[in-house]
Amino acid sequence: MKVTTMMAGGLGLSVVLLSACDLPGRPPAGPEVQRPEMVRSFDVLYGENCAGCHGKNGDHGAATNLANPEYEALIDDASLRDVIANGEKGTLMPGFSTKSGGPLTDDQIDIIVQGIRSRWKKGDALNGQNPPPYKAAHGGDVSKGQAVYAMACARCHGNDAQHVGSAGSILDGSFLALINEQTVRTTIIAGRPDIGEPDWRNHIPGRTMTDEEITDVSAWLIAQRPATPGQPYPNAQPTSELPGETQPQATKGNRPSKASKP
Ligand code: HEC
Ligand code: HEC
User: Fold this and answer.
1) What CATH number should be reported for the domain whose range is 142-223?
2) Cα 2 vs. chain centroid, distance in angstroms?
3) How do beta strands 158-160 and 163-164 pair?
4) C-beta 91 within 6 A of ligand 1
5) pLDDT one-digit tens code per residue, 211-247
6) Domain 34-120 coded CATH 3.30.70.1450
7) Mutation test residue for ligand 2: of 60, 157, 194, 222, the one with most atoms within 8 Å of CB
8) In CATH terms, are 34-120 and 142-223 the same topology?
9) What is the pTM of this model?
């Protein structure tokens, strides 16, 4: 008796499972409902995962100009793949491999690397000149970096965050919080032709910048990051700790403070 009931129950269940295939709202089978890990089109993969920060066509984005042939000449396949898979520490570049918690398979990362290369790597982008290596061989000397900044950057970017040059400030704390030493190095060497940042041959009138200078100025710039980037009132109390009438320090001047009352 017991056994028959179980069999009947089992039968009923499979009927439900079978008819579930025809339930309304179920997407039809076919190539247009590709699972995300099956997507193999560079345009789709790049458009959905990269374009928002690096620009639809690899330029004019907030982050590195990937379509810059000088950049493509500077970085090798292994480093390019490594950044995409694992992200860039200290910046907003996330790791995209499933191992890093990202959405892309190894295959899809390969498709992106090949797509970037075939579209944007051009023959002899550097006219036979050898740029300094993509990665710095050692840490920079922060104390020497400031003089390099004055010589190679200040004429366009200004002497300090208060005296901004024609190319805008790169000493702004919020900007520095978005990038790391590698970003500065990459930007100096390959330049950003999309926005007018020169390459390493054109920062100092009359000569190229040396590897050492690039390493030192990159270290110095990142050392200028404030402790609380993006926080205009570094001395203000966090709002969560404000009881009743107490005002954050930055707005104190707007109201008579208790101490100033007679
Ligand atoms: C949330 C924004 C964001 C997304 C999305 C993003 N990136 Fe980035 N990426 C950054 C930032 C920020 C940096 C570091 C600063 C810079 O290079 O301008 C960076 C750096 C990089 C670098 C290294 C640049 C160097 O210094 O050599 C590469 C290569 C790169 N991204 C490729 C990609 C690719 C390919 C994708 C899509 C799979 C992608 N990024 C998606 C923000 C992003
Ligand atoms: C001949 C003028 C010039 C010199 C010299 C120069 N830059 Fe720039 N740089 C620019 C311009 C123009 C931009 C684009 C500014 C913009 O888009 O608002 C720029 C942008 C940048 C950016 C921002 C890129 C981004 O992601 O928005 C960085 C970083 C940078 N420069 C670093 C440097 C450093 C470091 C030096 C010195 C080693 C330097 N620059 C020297 C003209 C210059």
Assistant:
1) 1.10.760.10
2) 63
3) antiparallel
4) yes
5) 999 999 999 999 999 888 877 676 666 555 555 544 4
6) no
7) 157
8) yes
9) 0.82
